[in-house]
Design goal:
Elements (H helix, E strand, L loop, with lengths): L2 E7 L5 H10 L3 E4 L1 H9 L5 E2 H5 L14 H8 L5 H10 L3 E8 L12 H6 L4 H11 L5 E3 L5 H10 L6 H28 L7 E5 L9 E5 L9 E3 L5 H14 L6 E6 L2 E7 L3 H11 L1 H4 L2 E5 L5 H7 L4 E6 L4 H7 L6 E4 L9 E6 L2 E6 L10 E3 L7 H14 L7 E4 L4 E5 L5 H15 L5 E5 L7 H7 L3 E7 L5 H10 L3 E5 L7
Parallel strand pairs: 1-2, 1-4, 2-3, 4-5, 11-12, 12-13, 19-20, 20-21
Antiparallel strand pairs: 6-7, 8-13, 9-10, 9-11, 14-15, 16-21, 17-18, 17-19
Helix pairs in contact: 4-7, 7-9, 13-14, 16-17
Length: 499
């Protein structure tokens, strides 16, 4: 069967040199609408695709190459007799080269009307590129004109054919191009303004009584519709609940998070939710006073009674039973939130700043055993590694600079929001000494320790291991210090600042 090249390009510059090379090696040219006209105008023979498929372009060109004959010609395995037999029955030219570039979606200004922008989403081009790249064993695919010269060199070198190495290299490049192309479309859809109907709920005041405040929501399942008891929520309550839920979402096993002034002050996981609460409370019973307590399991009556022994502003729990609710309702002002319907997670962070709004995506980074690396000589046990991962998950939700001590999946000391990492370490040590003196622990830092002074203080206590992000110019100095003092030091790739 004669070899053919299918050419369908938006950018029609440089077509002459590629067509002349195909002519030199007696490779037929098949093309679509406007590309076919351009090739013919340049003086080269060209078969128009609609004459071969017996299917004319329709829907203003939206459908022209989405045809089983075309894709069969590109995709059939040349070394498979059954494939070849089926393809021959189609009586269609064999396509060994696919030259396609896409509608310039990324180069089309975002300011044009959505309808025009949508017409710049190429469908047939990426489909053919993907088909041809999949079959790189036999088909050569070019998706950018900057590779025309390389293709011409290959054809001359191999007498009208290309090497497998070249075809595979182009296939790899093509899948990257189509991936980036689809991502640009996805990002446009995500950034396009979507009109939502927002419910505006007035709040008594903001952080302070002189500040006006209200809550905007587009969801029927929101904090206010999920409140089952207690006084009206305030601005600070809502902040604490939201931050607490973000922290709680890090954990799968029974976990309790106690939040005070937008920071976790006690976090613990255990074999059941009652033990998780007791451990979280003991992490810092002083700071827990008046806090927001969040659970990822249902509260039973026994736990409800234990909760009532202390003063809290808010309790958040999934599926609270009538009996437990009756116990907790004895405190008239205690805000109780049933979190079972609060499925919506934060995807974006917006902050009002001078002359504008600051945006960032939500920090969805998940730490696991596969994302940490031992950089000192002393390897930690499975339990200690689990505690380090636990501590780092908590540190992700503590205001920077963040230092978290933990043992047996319980926080033993948290240092938060200091201008100096050394000061945060001092605070964590102070908390640790108040409630857990002489107990072994691991330490997690939300960013790298720039100097050894922090580690010196930790090693004077019963610190079993340290986990921190890499990235300091002093990383090697920190590693060497850990090795010298026979300390377990683990690095994680990403820092988790939270200001």
């Amino acid at each position: 069967m004669k070899s053919n090249a299918l050419i369908s390009v938006y950018d029609k510059s440089s077509l002459k040199k590629i067509c002349s090379t195909f002519k030199m090696f007696n490779i037929g040219i098949i093309s679509t609408g406007s590309t076919a006209k351009k090739i013919i105008s340049l003086g080269y023979k060209c078969s128009e695709i609609s004459n071969l498929t017996k299917f004319r372009e329709i829907l203003d060109g939206r459908v022209k190459t989405l045809n089983p004959q075309i894709h069969a010609s590109i995709l059939f395995k040349r070394d498979d007799s059954s494939h070849e037999r089926v393809f021959k029955q189609l009586n269609f030219p064999k396509i060994d080269f696919v030259i396609v570039n896409f509608y310039p979606f990324k180069k089309t200004t975002h300011q044009i009307a959505s309808a025009k922008k949508i017409e710049m989403i190429d469908i047939g081009g990426p489909s053919m590129i993907r088909s041809a790249s999949k079959n790189f064993a036999s088909v050569t695919t070019i998706c950018e004109k900057k590779y025309y010269d390389q293709l011409i060199k290959e054809l001359i070198k191999h007498n009208g054919k290309t090497s497998l190495v070249f075809r595979k290299k182009m296939a790899e490049r093509n899948f990257k191009i189509t991936s980036d192309y689809d991502l640009s479309i996805f990002n446009w859809f995500r950034q396009s303004p979507i009109k939502k109907s927002y419910n505006k709920i007035k709040i008594k005041y903001g952080e302070n009584p002189n500040q006006k405040s209200y809550y905007l929501t587009s969801s029927k399942a929101n904090l206010f519709t999920s409140q089952v008891s207690g006084k009206n929520m305030g601005y600070n309550n809502i902040l604490d609940i939201s931050e607490g839920l973000n922290c709680l979402n890090e954990f799968y096993e029974p976990t309790c998070v106690i939040v005070k002034h937008n920071n976790p002050c006690g976090v613990a996981s255990a074999n059941n939710i009652k033990n998780a609460y007791l451990k979280a409370f003991k992490s810092d019973p002083v700071s827990s006073f008046g806090g927001v307590v969040l659970f990822n399991r249902k509260i039973n009556q026994d736990l409800a009674n234990k909760i009532n022994l202390n003063f809290y502003e808010v309790i958040v729990t999934p599926k609270i039973s009538k009996a437990s609710l009756r116990i907790l309702k004895s405190r008239k002002k205690l805000i109780i939130i049933d979190s079972i319907r609060l499925k919506e997670k934060n995807n974006n962070n917006f902050k009002s700043v001078n002359s504008g709004v600051l945006y960032q995506s939500f920090n969805s980074y998940k730490i696991s055993r596969s994302t940490i690396k031992l950089v000192s000589d002393k390897k930690s046990s499975k339990k200690i590694i689990d505690d380090m991962i636990f501590a780092y998950k908590v540190a992700k939700h503590v205001k920077s600079n963040a230092i978290v001590f933990a043992n047996n999946k319980q926080t033993l000391g948290i240092g938060a929001g200091q201008m100096s990492r050394l000061d945060s370490t001092r605070i964590a040590i102070m908390k640790y000494k108040d409630f857990f003196k002489n107990k072994n622990f691991v330490c997690a830092s939300d960013a790298f320790f720039p100097f050894t002074d922090n580690i010196q203080k930790l090693l004077k206590l019963k610190c079993d291991a340290i986990i921190q992000p890499s990235g300091s110019i002093n990383d090697n100095k920190i590693i060497n210090y850990a090795k010298k003092h026979k300390t377990s030091l683990y690095f994680v790739k990403y820092r988790v600042f939270k200001h």
